[in-house]
Amino acid sequence: MIRLEQETPEDWWEVENLFDLCFAPGREALSSYRLRDDIDPVAELCLVARDEGDGVGAAIRFWPVRVGETPALLLGPVAVHPTRQGEGLGGLVIREGVARARRAGWRHVLLVGDAPYYGRFGFSRLAAVEMPPPTNPERVLGLNLFEYGKELRGRVTRWDA
What we know:
The chain is an alpha+beta fold and 161 residues long.
C-alpha cells in the first residue's frame, strides 16, 4: 500500500537523501539547480510516496521559473528508491504532480530529462526554449497543461528575475 502525500518540511532531509542515493554526486552543480537556488518549491505540488513501513519510495518537486515572460513549472528532481523501481511509483508521482499543477492553474511544465521516459506522460522536446548552459537542448522537454496554451519559447530564468 502506497500513501501519496504532500512533502512537509519534516520530510526535506529524507527526500534529499533519496535524491542523493538516486543521482550522481555533484547533482547540485547542474544548471537547473541555479534556477532553484534560494527559491522555495511549489509546496502543494511536491509529493512523497510512502510505503506501509513509512519509508520514502518516491519523491517529486516542482519549482517556479519563467520562460521568457511566461510563468512555468520546472519539474525535478523526481526519484524512486532503487528497491522500489519498476513498480510505477515514478509515474504515479509525475501524473499526480502534473494533475495538481493543472488544478492549481499552472499552464506549463518543463524539465530536463530523457524523452523516451517522459514522453509517456505527454512531454515533448521544447526546441524554442533555452535552458542555462551547459544543458543539452535535446533534453529540454515540456508539457502544456491546457490545450489552448501557447507554445513556450524563450530563455528559462529564475522566478525572481
